[in-house]
């Protein structure tokens, strides 16, 4: 599904964000990506999304090498990837329904199908009664639920979550994790986080990064900063 083969990423002025990183994530696998700030977690997610190219090595998504600038199907790739951010990235001038439907409209999906998919996603995240609400009317936890619902709609079978609970209180964090538990059998999830409580409780595979290097790949879960 996703494979990194000796991937390095060096930014201008010689800053090495990744140093010869190799790992593979299978279809339907849930993987925590952990490490302190600057460890390389976000760089990994951006490489999978095609926002960055590696300086060396290769990145494969669904057996397709997306590493080079000759790869011309980024839009197609991204249609299959849902992204959830720490700061939600919900559009303030659109209501909940419109925020979730936006990506589906880009695909020229019939409105009847859009309505069905959006309402199914809202039911999944517990916001079935908030589709006409605007972001200013929602709590941080509700905004993150909107972001999760948006990432789950369409034919998106890869979910990249970049610190999605970083701005949430402990109770809301666990409410959000329950949503991920509901969908983990149907999606490939890479979940970047600093939250050791979540990682150690859920016991999923943990890839630990430090200074751009992969220092541990623990299939049994568990992590200490």
Condensed summary:
The protein is an alpha/beta fold and 225 residues long.
Write a concise keyword list for the protein shown above:
six-stranded mixed beta sheet, Rossmann fold, 27% strand, four-stranded antiparallel beta sheet, globular
Structural class: alpha/beta
Envelope shape: globular
Examine the secondary-structure arrangement and name the CATH architecture of the domain at 31-37 and 70-218.
3-Layer(aba) Sandwich
Quick one: biggest sheet?
6 strands, mixed
Helix content: 25-40%
What is the string of helix and strand elements? EEEHEEHEHHHEHEHEE
Number of strands: 10
What name does CATH use for the topology of the domain at 31-37 and 70-218? Rossmann fold
Mean pLDDT: 92
Protein architecture, described:
The protein is an alpha/beta fold and 225 residues long. 33% of the residues lie in helices and 27% in strands. The strands form two sheets. The protein has a six-stranded mixed β-sheet, sandwiched between helices. The protein has a four-stranded antiparallel β-sheet with strand order 2-1-4-5, covered by helices on one side. Helix 3 runs parallel beside helix 5 (140-152). The chain is globular. The mean pLDDT is 92.
């Amino acid at each position: 599904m996703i494979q990194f083969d000796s991937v390095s990423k060096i930014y201008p002025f010689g800053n090495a964000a990744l140093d010869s990183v190799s790992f593979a994530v299978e279809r339907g696998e849930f993987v925590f990506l952990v490490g302190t700030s600057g460890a390389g977690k976000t760089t990994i997610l951006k490489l999978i999304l095609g926002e960055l190219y590696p300086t060396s090595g290769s990145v494969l998504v669904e057996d397709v090498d997306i590493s080079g600038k000759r790869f011309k199907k980024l839009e197609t790739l991204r249609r299959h990837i849902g992204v959830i951010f720490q700061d939600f990235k919900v559009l303030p001038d659109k209501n909940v329904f419109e925020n979730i439907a936006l990506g589906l409209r880009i695909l020229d999906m019939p409105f009847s199908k859009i309505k069905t998919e959006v309402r199914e996603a809202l039911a999944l995240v517990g916001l079935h009664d908030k589709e006409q609400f605007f972001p200013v009317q929602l709590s941080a936890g509700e905004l993150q639920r909107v972001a999760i619902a948006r990432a789950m709609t369409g034919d998106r079978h890869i979910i990249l979550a970049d610190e999605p609970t970083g701005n949430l209180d402990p109770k809301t964090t666990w409410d959000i994790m329950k949503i991920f538990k509901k969908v983990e059998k149907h999606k490939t999830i890479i979940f970047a986080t600093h939250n050791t409580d979540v990682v150690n409780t859920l016991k999923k595979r943990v890839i630990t990064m430090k200074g751009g290097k992969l220092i541990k790949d623990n299939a049994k879960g568990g992590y200490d900063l």
